[in-house]
Every structure is written in structure tokens, then in C-alpha cells.
Amino acid sequence: MSHTLRTIQEDGDAVVILDQTRLPHETAFVILRGLEDAAHAIRVMQVRGAPLIGATAAYGVALALQEGCGLDEALTTLGATRPTAVNLHWALARMRRILEKSAPAARRETAWNEARAIAGEDEVANAAIGQYGLPLLAEIATRKGGVNVMTHCNAGWLATVANGTALAPIYAAQAAGLDIHVWVSETRPRNQGHLTAWELGQAGIPHTLIADNAAGLLMMQGKVDCVIVGADRIAANGDTANKIGTYLKALAAREHGVPFYVAAPVSTIDFACPSGAHIPIEERAGAELGAAVAKLDTAVANPAFDVTPAGLISGVITEYGVHAPTSLASLTCAA
Amino acid sequence: MSHTLRTIQEDGDAVVILDQTRLPHETAFVILRGLEDAAHAIRVMQVRGAPLIGATAAYGVALALQEGCGLDEALTTLGATRPTAVNLHWALARMRRILEKSAPAARRETAWNEARAIAGEDEVANAAIGQYGLPLLAEIATRKGGVNVMTHCNAGWLATVANGTALAPIYAAQAAGLDIHVWVSETRPRNQGHLTAWELGQAGIPHTLIADNAAGLLMMQGKVDCVIVGADRIAANGDTANKIGTYLKALAAREHGVPFYVAAPVSTIDFACPSGAHIPIEERAGAELGAAVAKLDTAVANPAFDVTPAGLISGVITEYGVHAPTSLASLTCAA
Question: Is residue A155 part of a domain?
């Protein structure tokens, strides 16, 4: 399996996804046939990663109309699945705009076409992110003879329709023949780092898995040249919500002069959101911390995201280039 | 079971420990009858926590002499079990000093007496740490109506002979009737946070378990008033090695103006070690990250400790008081 696999595909009048709750130990596909299938897949994280959540929601609207649901019901149900990743709301708003203009008889076909466009654009955008991120890694590799990148969570092809966001420059670096090694944080509580390790293993990219706790020591020891993470929502001022634990890595990166990049398509920027303080942080079930914790019968807090202030971010890599986090406004016309 | 239980006790000519690899889900005791039993218990972390490692090593010397081993063999074997916690070497050096002066016929008894003294002093020292730490918490509780403390790993009575180090002020705060709540990090990869949650649960102290990754968000949200951690080795300049992940919490604490305290007996200060850069960091088996990781067949790095620079530490709480991390030299006479 190469890293060019698509995570979501059409199959007749259904949509097929990879069940990411069973990866990397089992490769299982799930067929989405209607609205509730799509909403469930997002809610329980069979699909995850902001761009893929957006594409799945778009297809969810198409599936909903196909089974006779109203547009409002579809948008409301899908919009309530997860609160933080803005690509979900971006995709639903885009579906609403085009469908409200569409003649009733053409709506179903329009919905399929628009979902297909959203998915296709994500694939292209992420390939561009890879190309814009590549020179950042190449510069380090040239200077040091190789480059050690740290990432967090999974922002690879599994988190997108294809190509990945944070991992796109890493795949591009491999294709360009750079000597690259990736530090992969396990990313508690859901261990999405295992997905990243699996992705990189499939691609033959050298990598080392670590406990999230090890990030500070490795930076102190000079073993990290650069951090690249994905994003679930970027506020207009550049503050970035991403998987819980990202912020701690950003603080350590600043402390040790390690460049810290966020890689995301423009669909992840929420221009209506003035700052990180306005981003809702999803609180998920404590059971995600595992069976041993459940047996402890103890209170658990499980926020799924944190916010990295713009001041800690060296650059935001989008499909249009590398931007200072404070100058994202120039991208509004692209959104 | 109250929090006053002792983790290590004599039983005739043997020593009994709680097997901490089976806690908190199972309470099992292990009987140490000789040198290899004691060395094994430290190596595989049946006992853990710097002060308890020191006491176990001291008893290990007594057990070794009792079974006819030479002193040098005992000191070498026990000294090689774990590299970072300095209490191990402190206890062994103390045993060597007194035993080298002891008449051969009295050596066995001297060894038992000295091990007993080391264990007893740890219990008393930690109770004093609790009393010196209490006013720090009381001041916050008075000002805010309650106090939210974050800790890392387990530095409770399980990590010591009794009373705990980082948790000692928390137990003292409960006894003083303060309104206290503790944020408990799970502490990957070995989840010693489960031990802390269990300890606090036994004592009836309100607490909430979190993924290590959540620490930064909680501080950003103003939900943490103070951090208290233990230590495995404090260099003469105040740099502090403690469980991996401590450093990330210290960086976040500074960022948000949250006081960050290290609680440890003077036996944890290595006056011969000039700075954190000289502290050996134990690398443990990658298998500690769990069975799911093992199945991934991926490279794993698993450093067990990191170093928090003195500049991030608000104070070091010892059995003699609360000290600026840069003025530990005044304690050399107590060591």
C-alpha cells in the first residue's frame, strides 16, 4: 500500500472509507450508505483529521439527499458531530451554498459533484502543501546533512483525502532524496502516532516512536531540527487548534530555537474566528484513556485539542505557500 | 489502606515490598531474600521512586551480606540497576562508609541497622516536606478559595518509604482542611499517574486524571494554580532530573505564571553533579510503550527522565525548608 491511497472513495451510490479505529493493526473498510452512517463515522472517529472530516461531511450530505433527507436535517446532523475541526463546517457551508442555488431536480447530482470536488481539491491542495514545505526541509538537510522532523498526532494521508498535510512535506522530502528521519509522538489518549508510524513504515521513511512526554528532552538534546503539525482550526489571527499536546511541543520548540510549522489547507482557516480563545475545544469520553483507567474509577478530563498561539508558529504551510501566522488575511479570497 | 502505609518493611531476615508493577489493580507483596532479589526489584520497577530505590538498595546491601556476598559485589550490582536516581548511589555510598569502618563480625548487624535508619529518615524527611510545602498551598487556597495542584508521575508514599515527596504537601493540605484538587497526568509510558490516582483515591482527595498532553491547555485555561513534582536527581545548580515529561510541564508553568515546585529529600541532591547536563538519562526498553506498539515493528526511543533547568523551578521543598534552586549549596552540610 503506497502513501497515495485515498481514504474516501465512491462506490456506486455509496461511499467507502477506511476504518481508522482498527488501523494500523487491521485494514477494514466501512460502507457509508446514508446520513447516519456518515455522521457516525465522524463521531466515533472511523474517519479523523480535519480535511478528511470535511470531505466525509460533504459526501454525507450527498448520501442524505439520496435517501430522501432534507438538506437542513443533513447539515444539522453532520454539523453536530464534532466541534473543533472547522473543515467540517466549511464543507457543510459550501454544500449549503451550492445546493440552495440548485434546482430541486438537480440537487442530488449537484451534491455528489460538489462532494467529489471537495475531495479532489483536498488531494491537490495537500500535494501543493508538500511542495511548499519541501524547501523548508531541504534547507535544513543541506545545512546539516539530514533533517530530523518531529510531528504530533496523524496528519498524513490518513487524515486527509490523500497526501496528508504535516506529512506531505515529509513525503516530498523523501521523493527528493533528502536524508530524513521523523520523531513520531504516540499522541495519547488515542495513539494516532501509531497511524503515523504505520504510514511512514509503509512509505519506507525512517522514524522513531516516542512517548509524548519525550518531546522536550529530545529538543533539549538538539535531536529535533523542525516540528510540523497539522491543524483542526486556524483562527484569523493565526492561533491554531490542533490535537491535544501540540501546544507543549510548540513551547519546547520556541525554547530551543526549533522552527515550528503548521501545515493545513486554507479550508482549515476560520476567518470568522478572531482568535484561539473563540475555538470550541471538544471534550471527549474519559474512556478513551483506556481500560486500566476505567477500572480505577477515577474522574477523567479528556480535552481533544489545545490551542497554540500564533506567536509560537514559525509559518503556516498552505496550498498557496508558506505564510506568517499573522498574515493569513491575504488568503481570504482563496477561501 | 491509609496513605501512611510503608512501602518497604522488614520481616525476620527478609524484606517485604509492594509490587508496584501490579498496582493499582492488584495488591501483591514480594519478599526479598538476597542481593539478586533486591537488584531485580529495582531494575524491573517493582520498587520505584528515587527515595524508595535508595532505601531498597540499602536493604539490598544488608541482604547481600547476610547471604555471604562481598560488600563490593553488593555495591556494584545494586549500583548498576538504574542510572538516574541519585538516591540509589547516595544510599550505597552511605552503606559503604559505615560498613568499611565496621568490624567484620558486626557488619551484618550494622548493615541492617543502617538500612533501617535510611528508611526511617526518609519517612521523617517526607513528613517534614509535607509541612514545609503546606504553607505554599495554604496561601493559594486562602487567596482563591481552593487550590488546584498538578503533579506528574507518582511521587506519593508509593515512591518513598512513607508519606511521599510531591504528594506530602497535598496530604498535609488535606489534613489541614484545605479545599484541594489534584490534576494527575497519566505519565506515559508506564502510567505511574494511575498509582497517583489510586493513592489519592484511597486518601479521599479529589483528583482528575488527564493525558500528559492536556497539561498545557489546562494551564492556559487557568485551571492549574501550582505544580509540584518529585525528583530523581537534583544537580548542585538546581537543574532537576525527574520523570520524562516534567520539563514540558515546567515550560508551560512558566508561560502561564504557575509556580513550579520540586519536592525531594536532601538525599536527592547530587552536590557532586554541577548541572543537569551531567545527569545520565536512563534509556529503557521500547516495549514499555505497550503491546500495540510492539506489533507495529517500529523503532522506539524511551528515555525515562528529562531535565528541568533551575530557571524554571520556583522552589525546592526539602525536609529543611523551601529553597531557591540556585541556593542548594547551603544544604551540603545536611547531606
Answer: yes
Whether residue A2 is contained in a domain is answered as: no
**Active-site hit among A212, A232, A239, A270:** A232
Q: What is the pLDDT of residues A136-167, one digit of tens each?
A: 999 999 999 999 999 999 999 999 999 999 99
Q: Which residues between 178 and 217 in chain A have a beta carbon less than 8 angstroms from any beta carbon of chain B? A: 183-184, 186-189, 191, 194, 197-198, 201, 206-217
What angle (nearest 5°) sits at the alpha carbon of residue A243, between those of residues B218 and A159?
170
Give the neighbor-by-neighbor strand order of the sheet with A321-323. Answer: A321-323, A315-318, A260-263, A226-229, A147-151, A180-185, A207-210, B299-300
CB contact under 8 A, A198 and B296: yes
Identify the domain containing residue B86 by its residue range: 8-121
The answer to whether the CB atoms of A302 and B252 lie below 8 A apart is no
Gap between the Cα atoms of A61 and A57, Å rounded: 6
Residue A168: CATH number of its domain: 3.40.50.10470
Report residue A242 as a C-alpha cell.
490542533
**B24 and B173 co-located in one domain:** no
Domain closes at, from A104, A121, A138: A121
pTM: 0.96
Given a contact cutoff of 8 angstroms between Cβ atoms, the answer to whether A247 and A306 are in contact is yes
Give the orientation angle of helix A86-100 with respect to helix A50-66, to 10 degrees. 30
Specify the higher pLDDT residue, B334 or A4. B334
Which chain A residues contact residue B153 at CB under 8 A? none
Q: Among the three residues A121, A154, A181, which one is the final residue of a domain in this structure?
A: A121
Asked if the interface predicted TM-score (ipTM) of this complex is over 0.85, the answer is: yes
What are the strands of the beta sheet with B269-270, ordered from one edge?
B269-270, B233-235, B240-243, B305-308
Nearest-angstrom CA–CA distance, A120 and A128: 13
Judge if B99 and B147 occupy the same domain.
Answer: no
Q: Are residues B139 and B95 in the same domain?
A: no
Active-site annotation holds for B306: no
B5: pLDDT confidence band, cut at 50, 70 and 90? confident
- Chain B touched by A25 (CB under 8 Å): yes
Q: Which of A286, A295, A298 faces B25 most closely, judged by CB atoms?
A: A295
Count: domains in chain B: 2
- Is residue A213 located within the same domain as residue A288? yes
Say whether both A139 and A263 belong to one domain.
yes
CB interface of A with B, residues 263-302, below 8 Å: 281, 286, 289, 292-293, 295-302
| Pair B176, B290 in one domain | yes
Phi–psi pair at B279, nearest 5 degrees: -85, 125
Which among A286, A298, A306 has the least Cβ separation from residue B207? A298
In which residue are the cell numbers 497554540 written?
A308
